[in-house]
Amino acid sequence: MKKAIFFILIFFTCFTVFGQQKHALVIGNDIYAGSMWSNLRNAVNDATDMKTALESLGFQVDLLLNANLSQMQMAIINFKQRLRSSPNTYGFFYFAGHGAQDRNNHDYLIPVDADTPSLNLLSQRAIPVQFLMDELAEARNELNMIVLDACRDVPSLDRSGSRGLSTVSNAPRGSIVIYATAANKVAGDGTGRNGLFTSHLLKNLTTPGLTVNEIFTRTGADVARATRGDQYPEIRQMYHETAYLSTRTTPTPTPAPVPVPPTPVYQAQPVTVPSGSISMRGRAIQEMEVEGLYIYHASLPLNRKVILINPVTERGLEVTIIGRIAADDNRFVDVSLDVWRALELNHDNSTVLMWVLPR
Question: For helices 212-226 and 196-205, what crossing angle results, to 10°?
Fold first, then answer.
């Protein structure tokens, strides 16, 4: 009994350590009241719907809505700790809100309490994207997906006039980074419940059987197509394995059609068994006594299989001998009605050929 309990404990310990785990951090900021950043329409909706989608895929999700600087910093640090729980862990980071870059092309995610009248304040009052990348690199888990749906409508800071995010240059190994739009461009806020980029990402994220790479590639193509190339998502890939977020689907093979044996057709050949005429009397008897592909024969053993052939149509049929006819009968077989019809016999054409099949 003690050994059994010990084995069970080992089993559950191994499952915890080595089983596939999925953790996500989702942030949606759209109320930037009291700062120079304008409010957004869909960031909270996007984050809320992303949480629902990820949970349906088995992720443990932490959701932050309208988070300030301190909340975002601690959430990223705690996210790293959860990703460290197993080397097989998948991480998913999602941010919807404002983003910006400084003069050195360093990217920042903007908290709702960020007051940044100068580019030089971004490093103090916003979340550096490189900080996020460094934290994820320290987690050393198998795969991290970083989705940055920013920016939506970024004000011009100082004289730079730069808008949107640049492209991260130091993505950690084992990561895929996708931007809602190209470097220095603005991502559309959308006209419905969700932003343009996230609406397409949600659709592909919950499509069964797609690999992670297919999810992001399809999303980028959908957004570019919907905007006729005005918004063109970028992907930075540092993961080259094949990963699935949902259960991999195996296409159901199309069942092979059940072969239908064709009606055998034989070429007329000489036979050693003499042929004779089939009388209406025999046909009538068989119609009354038995249905099916059967014949009566004068001398061959019962239950023996033979092939009868209509020499006019060359149509052949395998039949079974089930009875006798009189030895002095001028016919050598009497057939059932089913045989008569199958061989397409008639009063003017009632002569058949016969092959005796080997036992």
Answer: 140
**Residue 19: alpha-carbon gap to chain centroid:** 22
CA pair distance 56, 315, nearest whole angstrom: 63
Own/partner long-range contacts of 193-196 (Cβ < 8 Å, ≥24 apart):
193/42, 193/45, 193/49, 194/42, 194/45, 194/46, 194/49, 195/42, 195/43, 195/46, 195/96, 195/149, 195/152, 196/223, 196/226, 196/227, 196/231
For β-strands 143-149 and 90-96, DSSP reports them as: parallel
Domain interval for residue 308: 280-356
Asked if 319 and 284 touch (Cβ cutoff 8 Å), the reply is: no
d(CA 200, CA 126): 27
pLDDT digits (tens, 9 = 90+) for 312-344: 877 888 888 888 776 555 666 777 888 878 888
pLDDT-based confidence at 149, cuts 50/70/90? very high
151 upstream amide cis, omega within 30 of 0: yes
In a domain, 255, yes or no: no
Question: 90 and 183: one domain?
Answer: yes
Amino acid in the structure at residue 289: E
| Tally of CB atoms within 10 A around 254 | 6
CA distances from 235 to 57, 104, 255, 288, 323 (A): 22, 21, 40, 81, 82
Rounded Cα gap, residues 25 and 63, in angstroms:
6
Q: What is the CATH number of the domain that holds 342?
A: 2.40.40.10
Residue with the two structure tokens 């039949």: 319
pTM as predicted: 0.64
CA distances to 9, 108, 308, 324 from 305, rounded to whole Å, are: 67, 88, 10, 14
